[in-house]
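Below is a filled-in request sheet from our internal design queue. Each sheet records the structural input a requester submitted and the sequence that came back. We keep these sheets so that new team members can see what a complete request looks like end to end.

REQUESTER: design group, bay 2
PRIORITY: normal
MODE: inverse folding
CHAIN LENGTH: 459
BACKBONE (tokenized):
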């Protein structure tokens, strides 16, 4: 391919949207880009601990194949030749799916999950499998058979979970995007803690087949990226036919008019115990939006904090392992799994019916507003030095996940976008949520926030 004019440092800092045309126009080689990502992983990941498995040989083979296709005039789209990575709950044929647990050490799937097939079809290069909170059952990322993934932005603080490795790898420029899973906020929380964009799609829009479940009724798969445009690019490949949704092209026929949007700020529940620095960043973002939308007013949404369905479903999946491999779980994970063991079937069925009825009424929320705004996480990422016992850790996890979980319950599309930093230098996320299927509209507003809060936009 043509000789590059970019240093390794230069092109690792690029977004997918910036990198893609350089690859397409043969100014950068997928082989060169992949080699540099693998070099950076070998240099930095011994400290960050974001990867569980690095598939170097497979990645280089994919990079050579992608380059040969380009040399022969075939371009698959904006992910062609772009290195990405996957949370280690997602099956890749021939590569262990460990869920960051000793229970799954010998679990080697024979086929790719549908989301992996979609990424391969789009030409993406798979670098490997990323660390997480064991079995995704926690919001800190601190409980893993492989040790905790470190926060590259605030090393003294939690990365957030459960997709901790996914956020750490993207923030440290080890890959250009990553897939995470989100059952109560596990994409948006670590993305916010690391100053990234994280998108939880509408429930059912992206397949969860071939992904180790935490709770089938609430699980989502989605991207963590450095920019909103990159999240749109990832979603354009990931979205598809699942759970009765039609095959979806994320971008609608007509560009949504953000100037016509009615925004609702949900303060009740979502602002409880909010940190002053987080609130300041949120209000600054709202002020920036005010002149660019039709209306901003207060709104309310139903919040169901009952966890009967999620704990019962978690135990239902793990029951077969608990009896044989109970001693191989991290103790805190096993305790959480066992909390769903004694749920009566009649209670589960009734709670699941109530969930369906609640989701059936979600469009009523959007009678007077089009999009909802909240802080993504009400507090700063906690200092690791303060998370010294399991009771304290769990309290902080539940508080960190408090603002994200309601949108898993409702199944609504929700994205976090950076909206500033606190006085202590911690990133703050603005959470933008919409009606069922309004993923593109939510991402478009996030893109506007990104533009307004950039140094150029602020000027």
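RETURNED SEQUENCE:
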């Amino acid at each position: 391919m043509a000789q590059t004019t970019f240093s390794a440092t230069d092109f690792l800092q690029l977004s997918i949207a910036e990198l893609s045309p350089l690859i397409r126009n043969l100014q950068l080689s997928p082989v060169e880009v992949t080699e540099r990502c693998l070099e950076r992983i070998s240099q930095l990941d011994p400290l960050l601990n974001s990867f569980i498995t690095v598939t170097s040989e497979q990645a280089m083979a994919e990079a050579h194949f992608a380059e040969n296709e380009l040399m022969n005039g075939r371009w698959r789209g904006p992910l062609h030749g772009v290195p990405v990575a996957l949370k280690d709950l997602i099956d890749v044929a021939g590569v262990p799916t460990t869920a960051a647990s000793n229970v799954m050490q010998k679990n080697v799937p024979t086929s790719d999950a549908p989301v992996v097939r979609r990424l391969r079809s789009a030409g993406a290069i798979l670098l490997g499998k990323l660390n997480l909170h064991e079995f995704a059952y926690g919001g800190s990322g601190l409980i893993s058979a492989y040790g905790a993934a470190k926060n590259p932005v605030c090393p003294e603080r939690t990365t957030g979970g459960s997709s901790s490795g996914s956020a750490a790898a993207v923030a440290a420029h080890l890959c250009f995007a990553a897939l995470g899973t989100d059952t109560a906020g596990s994409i948006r929380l670590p993305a916010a803690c690391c100053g990234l964009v994280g998108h939880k799609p509408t429930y059912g829009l992206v397949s969860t087949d071939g992904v180790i479940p935490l709770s089938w009724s609430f699980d989502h798969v989605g991207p963590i990226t450095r920019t909103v445009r990159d999240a749109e690019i990832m979603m354009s490949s990931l979205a598809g036919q699942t759970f009765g949704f039609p095959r979806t092209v994320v971008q609608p026929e007509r560009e949504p008019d953000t100037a016509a949007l009615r925004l609702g700020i949900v303060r009740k529940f979502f602002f409880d115990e909010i940190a002053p620095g987080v609130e300041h960043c949120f209000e600054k973002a709202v002020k920036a939006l005010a002149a660019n939308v039709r209306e901003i007013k207060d709104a309310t949404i139903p919040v169901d904090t009952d966890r009967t369905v999620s704990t019962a479903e978690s135990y239902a999946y793990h029951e077969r392992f608990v009896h044989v491999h109970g001693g191989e779980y991290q103790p805190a994970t096993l305790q959480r799994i066992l909390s769903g063991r004694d749920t009566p079937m009649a209670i589960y069925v009734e709670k699941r019916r109530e969930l369906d009825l609640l989701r059936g009424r979600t469009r009523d929320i959007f009678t007077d507003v089009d999009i909802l705004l909240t802080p993504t996480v009400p507090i700063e990422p906690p200092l690791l030095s303060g998370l010294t016992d399991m009771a304290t850790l769990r309290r902080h996890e539940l508080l960190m996940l408090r603002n994200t979980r309601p949108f898993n319950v409702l199944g609504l599309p929700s994205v976090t976008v950076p909206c500033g930093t606190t006085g202590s230098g911690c990133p703050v996320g603005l959470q933008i949520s919409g009606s069922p299927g309004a993923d593109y509209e939510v991402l478009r507003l996030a893109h506007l926030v990104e533009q307004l809060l950039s140094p150029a936009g602020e000027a």
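SHEET NOTES:
- The first helix runs from residue 8 to 12.
- Residues 8-307+339-458 form a domain with the Amidase signature (AS) enzymes fold (CATH 3.90.1300.10).
FILED BY: M.R.
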